[in-house]
Description:
With 447 residues, the chain is mostly beta strands. It is built from 3 helices and 23 strands. The strands form 7 sheets. A 6-stranded antiparallel beta barrel has the order 9-10-11-15-14-13. Strands 3-4-5-8-7-6 form a 6-stranded antiparallel beta barrel. Strands 1-12 form a two-stranded antiparallel ribbon. The chain is elongated and about 80 Å long. It starts with 24 loop residues before the first strand and ends in a 20-residue tail after the last helix. The N terminus and C terminus are likely disordered.
Amino acid sequence: MRAGLLALTAATACAVDATAERRAAIVGGVDDDRAAVVALEGAAGPCSGVVLAPKVIATAGHCAGGLAAASFGASPPWDDRIAIVSVLRVRTTVDGLGADLALARLARPTAIAPLTRATASPVAGAALTAIGFGRTEPDDPATAGRRRAARLTISSVTPTTIATDGAGPGFTCAGDSGGAGLDDAGALFGLVVAGAPACDGPTTLVRLDVHAAWIDAVLAAWDGPCAADGACAAGCPTLDPDCDPCGLDGTCREACPAPDLDCPIGGGPGAPCVDALACESRRCVPAPDDPAVRFCSAACDGDGATCPAPLAACADGACVYLGPTPGAFGAPCDGDAACRSGSCDRALARCTRPCRDGCPDGYACGGDPDEPVCRPTSGGCASGGRGGGGGGATAVIAMIAMVAMGIGLRGRDRDRDRDRDRGRGRDRGRDRDRGRGGDRGRGGDRG
Length: 447
């Protein structure tokens, strides 16, 4: 048997499609008796899961498709098998492995005691115990189906994920997706979501602490006296959904102060919107440099340091773009589709608008006589015809300047202060890291 426990593979037992390439299993570990880690059956193939409450199982989001049942026990024949009646994927505008999380609701409660969720954040260098029902031999689907555990070492932690160093001797493999990641006290701080295709390298886990509010809301609605059961109960840790029309009661209501968990997820920061209901933040604002452009935003104060990417500046209490708003008048473009107006001045590579809509101060009709657009009056490019004589560069500068007056220069003082602080830091022999981490991409093979 190969050394390693949870070797995450890029294939399921019988498929090699994109979903299969996201599943994982444990290679080279040892048998484990923690009954709260269970085996899951579904259209996505074999996966693992963790009991969070008598009627709630947590698993990887890519395992959520067609989940049918949870099997309890260390291996077949199972001690118990309970049907899954509903599944919810995590409500977040974050993309990638940091959002690869789902909760499944059981048809009846299990007697298995839930795992306790960790309260402290994981740290690099700490040990991690991974538990799952994945393969023990990467190329042999028949080796999956036994609960196994292995010790791994955390190499890095991002705001939404945990990565192990892949040094072995334990690894994750196909079937371990959704399995548990425990600290030395046995508390659950993550779920296995990805690993090396050959089950011989690093493992990635989704952090649960960053999704705690959503998890708590679902647990309250699905389990116990505060569940959505038609009876309004008092004294609940979160408001009983039966007492609140905006609760997780199976009905989407748009007129809620915060997004109803029954409603589709709204747009994230920077997403185009027509009204607040189109945004997960319930905040849709006009662009400072082109009020005709609206996008999803967030509340802010100060210089925008707390704004979610891609927004990085603060204007009138709302997070906005630092620089031209994509698609706005004067913003860079490589084609008409990149502009709200549907008109990109290819000579200047900037969004413009047809003259029939009127031109703002500093602009006049120019460009193609058959389809004139608003162009800056500087540099001789605003006259009829296509312009020439090197005026294009001057026109671009003028257009950028007009946009900068709207919002681009809002960050100038902040940048100056930041450069000054960095200079002081060098004098003291210290570097400052002002970056913000996050995994918004979908890289890597899934567990």
